């Protein structure tokens, strides 16, 4: 694992992964800050849905008993952090809170508790892919088509089982992609640089884009892949960077490879668009957030000459890396699905972030 090559150097002073500061140097190291307590509670509220998924994991012997152990141990660690932020490898932040949860699950044999729902949602989304793409292709105006594709990314990003509230809605009612496209919060969004991005988009400047992708199902298949297909059609080489190991319902490198192979026709095209410039990379990541100071050597090699970096989803693009600076143009795009993030940004729950940073040459 090495630093992402498009981060400015020195990494140690120029890059901080977590967007929200959980504490400041003046804070007492032995007393949890209000922000730490708030986010510890966010992760505590997710325990029931994770326990339920783990209990039904048929690949794990004694899954219900092990799921109970996971729930008690993780809840205990979270309570320890409230009492002493320096316990259990703390003080906690968004990366540590997620890392400990995933470590506990894997230690108990739960390698991918969302596998079943991911497979089901991928199959549904694959069946809808031609319709979504045809609706996009029918829009003749370039800027209107781009906005439609962007709205598709936001709509797909709703499929996030890491949000306790959305996990409940999903298990009860399901989530409709096309309805979600129509029901996005109106512009202007909490961060809305779409007009600036559209201006650059028309000039067709990017030779190579790296997209850090997020969730399975509608997110990757109906949101990101139509957008990536449009980039390909405009001559941009596209690298899709996906997790090495499962985390929540995020798509993995192997799953994404399989999805793209199913969507390609016998000529290797995505509904008429050549995919010879489409690459899928293993990011080396195993969390729902990402620390770009550590990525796989494969991704680093493929990314070194990119001129556009896209971080998609709340975990990679908002909760981490929202203020990250790169040596090239960058785009953060995702939906706000935690009220704590909405409050930090001064926006609304389910608000949208479209943050474009153009590097002046």
Automatic annotation (TrEMBL):
GO cellular component term, pick one: nucleus
Domain of life: Eukaryota
Keyword Oxidoreductase: no
Classification via Gene3D superfamilies: AF1104-like (1.20.1700.10), Uncharacterised protein PF01937, DUF89, domain 2 (1.10.285.20), Uncharacterised protein PF01937, DUF89, domain 3 (3.40.50.10880)
GO MF entries: ATP binding; hydrolase activity; metal ion binding; pantothenate kinase activity
Pfam families xref list: ARMT1-like_dom (PF01937)
Name this protein carries in UniProt: Damage-control phosphatase ARMT1-like metal-binding domain-containing protein
């Amino acid at each position: 694992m090495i630093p992402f090559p498009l981060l400015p150097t020195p990494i140690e002073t120029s890059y901080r992964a977590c967007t929200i500061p959980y504490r400041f140097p003046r804070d007492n190291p032995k007393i949890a800050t209000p922000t730490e307590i708030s986010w510890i509670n966010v992760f505590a509220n997710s325990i029931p849905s994770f326990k339920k998924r783990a209990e039904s994991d048929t690949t794990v012997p004694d899954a219900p008993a092990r799921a109970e152990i996971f729930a008690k141990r993780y809840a205990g660690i979270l309570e320890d952090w409230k009492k002493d932020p320096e316990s259990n490898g703390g003080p906690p932040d968004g990366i540590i809170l997620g890392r400990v949860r995933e470590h506990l699950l894997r230690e108990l044999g739960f390698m991918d508790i969302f596998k079943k729902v991911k497979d089901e949602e991928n199959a549904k989304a694959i069946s809808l892919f031609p319709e979504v793409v045809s609706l996009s292709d029918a829009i003749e105006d370039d800027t209107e088509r781009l906005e439609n594709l962007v709205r598709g990314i936001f709509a797909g990003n709703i499929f996030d089982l890491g949000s306790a509230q959305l996990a409940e809605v999903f298990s009860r009612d399901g989530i409709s992609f096309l309805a979600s496209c129509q029901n996005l919060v109106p512009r202007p969004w909490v961060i809305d640089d779409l007009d600036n991005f559209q201006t650059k988009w028309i000039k067709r400047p990017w030779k190579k884009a790296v997209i850090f992708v997020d969730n399975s199902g509608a997110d990757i298949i109906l949101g990101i892949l139509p957008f990536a297909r449009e980039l390909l059609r405009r001559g941009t080489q596209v690298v899709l960077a996906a997790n090495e190991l499962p985390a929540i319902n995020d798509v993995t490198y192997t799953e994404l490879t399989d999805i793209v192979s199913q969507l390609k026709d016998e000529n290797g095209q995505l509904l008429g668009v050549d995919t010879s410039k489409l690459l899928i990379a293993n990011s080396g990541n195993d969390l729902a957030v990402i620390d770009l100071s550590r990525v796989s050597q494969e991704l680093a090699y493929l990314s070194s000459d990119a001129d556009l970096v896209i971080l998609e989803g709340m975990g990679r693009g908002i909760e981490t890396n929202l203020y990250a600076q790169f040596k090239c143009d960058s785009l953060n795009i995702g939906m706000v699905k935690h009220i704590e993030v909405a409050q930090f940004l001064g926006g609304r729950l389910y608000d949208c972030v479209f943050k474009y940073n153009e590097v002046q040459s």
